[in-house]
Amino acid sequence: MNNILRLVIAILLCQTWLPLPGFAQAQKGEIKGKVIDNESKKPLPYATVAVYLAQDTSLITFRVTDDKGAFRTPGLPLQVRLRVVVSMTGFGVYRKELTLTSTETVADLGEVIMGESTKMLSEVLVTAEVPPIVVRKDTLEFNAASFKTLPTSLVEDLLKKLPGVAVDNAGNISVNGKAVNKILVDGKAFFGDDPKIASRNLPADVIDKVQVMNDLEALRRNPDLPASEIPQVVNLKLKKSIKKGLFGKLYAGTGATGRYEGGGILNIFRDTTQVSILGYSNNLNRPGFGFEDISRIGGFNRSGMNSMMIRSDGGFAINDISFGATGQGIQQSSGAGANFNTLLKNGFQLNGQYFFGNINADLEQVSNANQFLDNWILNTRSTQNQNSNNNSHRLGGKLEGKIDSLTNFSFTPSFTFTNAYSRQNSFTNTLQDVADMLNQSDNRERLTNSSANFTANINLHHRFKKKGRSINFYSRINTGNSGDDQYNTVRNTFYEPQPVTTLLDQYRENDQSNVSVSNNIQYDEPLFKNISGNLQLSSEYFSNRSTIGTYARGDNDTEYQIPLPDLSNLLNRKGWRNNLTTSIRVKLGELSLQPGVRFSTLNIANFFQVSPNLHQNFFYLNPTLNIFWKQLNFTYGSYIQEPEISDLQPIINNTNPLYIFAGNPNLKPALSNNINLNYYKFDTKRLLNINVYSYGSIQRNGIIRERSVSTEGVQTTRPINVNDDIWSLGGGGRLMKDFKFNTKNQFSLGGRMRYSYNKTLIILNNQKSNAKIWELAPSAEARINLDDKIELNQTFSLNNQRSFYTNQDFENRTVNYRTWNSEVIIRTPKKLVWESQLEYRYNSNVAPGLWRSYTRINAAVTYLFLKNDRAQLKLAVYDILNQNLNTYRTIQENIVQDFQTTVLKRYSLLTFTYNIRNFGGKVGGNNSIFRF
């Protein structure tokens, strides 16, 4: 362990003062000029200007001319014979040799005149001076050989080196600011239309050309798409076409204190059929595979994802199945499944999938809540211990294709079955002003849950021969049942006005069934040259049933047989939701306006067992507006949300006698008026990404929790509608600048900003107060990649939360966080990869007894061996300082609450992995299968 610590310290020192070759360079030269069409005398944009060494024609750098035909190629060596090659499809090639010197570092070629080519390019085989970029009409083509990558690199690594191409940490691809929604291989779909299946699995060294073009299918569906929103399609031309094969990875690891991991994922494809198989298990509080692996290699994207949840620490769930690290505490996660995809003779694509997931979690958590009341503070500290086990099964599929050349059809059914069990003990102390004890509670709980759900989506889209005329039909069917069985044994002691002990011993069952059927039809009709009409009609039927039965123990003290009518009820809710939206789209150059109006009706019938039935009918008339101008997008609309059925139950939930929840059968739907503003721009000349977004919502008849706190410290909440508007505003932005000095070295620098503002109403012990909560979170990041040999990534972020109250009995509060993340990766020629990660987090205010800050350091070394580095042996040490914590503070209404949860601390792990066909990706950092 001492040797490992020395190794880690050395890596961290490298992270601090490691010299950066390529940035402290000697004097360099540049070549500039302007490319002109000989016939029209107009500038030629997007012509390729490449600079080679004249001696061996090896590529030094290249540029693409801007909209005015100008170019500038800096960073060129001096005292070396250079060859400048300017090329563009349909024009003859321009060549010129020159030498830059220390006295003449700039060569101005002036106007480079390009004449039409006299040769047919299809008859010429070029073996040298291949231009790195060629523009052919609407297609941008990159020559893969001009961009050096590692032997283990994937297509994603190749794309990152292409000018104008951006790939974020999630693998989303954009070209000149436009999103890529499809990757083809030799003009055909590869494992469906998801671009990440190809970008994160195909090796870069089999690619000959990368072609980028507009998505013509998207343009046919919506001819009025603004230029900035036209999706892009990438076609990968292979050196040798792949017809059959397999790729994937197998891994197994073991470590100290019983830690382990193991799994495998395999994809087999032959012509138009693909089969995916995966399985994994670990007790490391993380998924067995990354989200991209599961959704793409595992095939979930092909069969459809009805729901997904992704945590910032890497945990995720798809279609209600957890793949690990989705909850709190220390988790053991296991899973297995299979997915197949095939192309039928009639051109339809058929997909099927089954997956099983299991999560076993142990949770130890301490929470502390300070609630500011009239001249005193209610302090509540709870200690919770819980063990839970969850099993999930999902069977799904998808059938999609073209009925004819103008009609597309898809059908996506899925079945999900879950069962869960948990046992929890919680101990709570409630004090007045952190001194006077009000109560103590010892709550022991057992909970079992089972559910079954079926969902089916049907989509039919037809384009008419008349350009711009189309009709789209979408239908969704959902039905499900769930049952909760909850056993509580609670012993409470209340100290005011005198000590009294109470005992609660009861069983509560909550069975629910839900059915919803929704249909939506949309029709687009071109009216004039730049004006088109849109009509949308949607209708949804929903039916919800909630049965709650509560029982006390019988005389034999073994079974719960005595009904408690005051805590039991049957509730049925049925209703219809209908919307009719009409709008007109007007195009004025690059400006597109789409104003409209929406007619909405909501009819609900509630049937109660213990209170009168209630029928509610609502009608709404609201405007809609969409504005598109270049990269700017603005939308305004409204949304109606009926109350949750659990909030309508006219009985109380007393399973925790210190926190009693009461329902309200008279709740009305809430109406939200929402606006969204987005701006995205990519400056190809400056390699600059700009993204700004903002949103806002004003909610009428919003639902809040009216609360009361008794002198014994018992809190009771009840949902009510409020007349005051509830405001929610937020947004942010991102600015990222890429510096690609050459095809090997890259530096990126940028920053982010996120903000939010929420205004709501607090009603506590019949006192009212407006609460305004602000959050501001700026961050800065820098990334350096030196020929894939050294990578440095740094992120620093701040978070400031403030709460203000109009009632002076509530105290204004401020919370500050600081977080610093640092990562270094070093790849040596001797097949060794060193990597380390450092995370520091500081919280300005915490409750007494909780940690204010922590530092977590992870380090690892990987040895690559076998052909093409297919095998990897990795030794990793997690949380070297043994300080890992999960602590956070929240501000909600007049409550400041701290949480501290037990997490995994220091352990070491030795893992072996084998990449089949070397599709394992670049070793180190986020691309590695082994994520800290």
Rounded to the nearest angstrom, the radius of gyration is: 31 Å
- Average pLDDT works out at 82
First-last Cα distance: 18 Å
Oligomer: single chain
| Overall geometry | globular
How many β-strand runs?
51
Number of helices: 7
Main β sheet profile? 26 strands, antiparallel, barrel
Beta strand %: over 45%
Identify low-pLDDT runs. Answer: 4-25, 120-128, 926-932
- Helical proportion? under 10%
Classify the secondary structure makeup into a structural class: mainly beta
Folded structure, characterized:
The protein has 932 residues and is mainly β. The strands form six sheets. The chain has a 26-stranded antiparallel β-barrel. Among the domains are: 107 residues, Immunoglobulins (Immunoglobulin-like); 105 residues, TonB-dependent receptor, plug domain (Ferric Hydroxamate Uptake Protein, Chain A, domain 1, Beta Complex), CATH 2.170.130; 260 residues, no CATH class.
For the structure shown, list the relevant keywords.
disordered C terminus, single chain, Immunoglobulin-like, 932 residues, Ferric Hydroxamate Uptake Protein, Chain A, domain 1, 5% helix, 26-stranded antiparallel barrel, eight-stranded mixed β-sheet, mainly beta
